[in-house]
Amino acid sequence: MPVPQAPDDIASRLSTWYRATARDLPWRRPQFHEEFGAWGVLVSEFMLQQTPVTRVIPHLEAWLERWPTPTAMAAASTADVVRQWANLGYPRRALWLHRAAIEITARHGGAVPREIESLLALSGIGDYTARAVAVFAYGDRHPVVDTNTRRVLARAIDGRAQPAPPSRRDLALMASLLPDTVEEAAVFNAAAMELGATVCTSRAPRCDVCPLAPTCAWLADGRPDTGDGRRRQATYEGSDRQARGAVLRLLRDIAPEGAPLPSVLPDWPDEQQRDRAIDSLIADGLAEADGATLFLPR
Predict the structure, then answer these.
(1) Using CA atoms, how far apart are residues 90 and 55, in angstroms rounded to an integer?
(2) Which residue, 106, 62, 61, is CA-closest to 84?
(3) Following DSSP, what letter does each residue of the chain receive, concatenated?
(4) Rounded to an integer, what distance in angstroms lies between the CA atom of residue 12 and that of residue 211?
């Protein structure tokens, strides 16, 4: 599919706006990069997946205080990693980050690699995270596309209320918009994500303060409802995810002794759901059963 024509000044408009209004976040500060380098960026990107910034910041600070390098984390036990992840949600991310730390230590001498291919070869790292590390930690010139960026591009260029399902076209479109210089390309990548997170939001976009309003295709068409093909996430309340979280919370609280299986959520309203949650945690490597006792992974 051909890449649509974008306004010539989209990059300069966004970057100027970003320099004036960007939030002061830990991973954007020079001292953060001086202290933790690419490892700090990698940890922050793992934690930020599907998790609000306000929840991530205290967990990130505690994590990097405990494990300031991949080598330090590689030496930790899986149980310690799962316990430290606490209530961030989607705890498999903790396992993937732990495995990535082990791989970085074994394959790259404890230094987070710079090349996209090497980053993609690490556990839990996909297109977005690999490019985010290469751009925001190492200053390389690549398109970085997350959910917020895709929404900005969908509205400003395609005239759609919500983006289509992710595709390689997203990277091609973002690449076509990148400024030529490495520094400006990095700023533009960050600016597009920032705009989507704070102004061009999914449910309540603030078009009156958007720097792209003068040329936004969606706004020019009257903000039409063009449909939403995004996959809907199931409600958390009463879900298997809630049951899994409750089991993990219990195991974190009593670690390392473990819990007799009959004492694991005995009052949970759906016994089959509770058992399904326990089985799935064991299958994912987030828990272990030893006879009639359930533990965090040892």
Answers:
(1) 13
(2) 62
(3) -PPPP--TTHHHHHHHHHHHH----GGGSHHHHHHHHHHHHHHHHHHHTTS-HHHHHHHHHHHHHH--SHHHHHTS-HHHHHHHHTTSS-THHHHHHHHHHHHHHHHHTTS---SHHHHHTSTT--HHHHHHHHHHTT--------HHHHHHHIIIII--SSPPSP-HHHHHHHHHH--SSHHHHHHHHHHHHHHHHHTS-SSS--GGG-TTGGG-HHHHTT-------PPPPPPSTTSHHHHHHHHHHHHHHHTTS-EEGGGSSTT-S-HHHHHHHHHHHHHTTS-EEETTEEES--
(4) 10
How far apart are alpha carbons 215 and 13 in whole angstroms?
10
CA 144 to chain centre: 12
Packing angle of the helix pair 92-108, 78-85 (nearest 10 deg): 130
The tokens for 7 are: 């306004």
| Catalytic machinery residues | 45
Q: Each residue's pLDDT tens digit in the chain (298 positions)?
A: 455 556 668 999 999 999 999 999 999 999 999 999 999 999 999 999 989 999 999 999 999 999 999 999 999 999 999 999 988 888 999 999 999 999 999 999 999 999 999 999 999 999 999 999 999 999 999 999 999 999 999 999 999 999 988 888 999 999 999 999 999 999 999 999 999 999 999 999 999 999 999 999 999 999 999 988 766 666 878 888 889 989 888 988 886 778 888 889 999 999 999 999 999 999 989 999 988 899 888 7
Global pTM reads 0.88
Per residue in 107-138, is it b (16+ CB within 10 Å) or e — as a string? Answer: eeeeebbeebebbeebebbebbbbbbbbbbbb
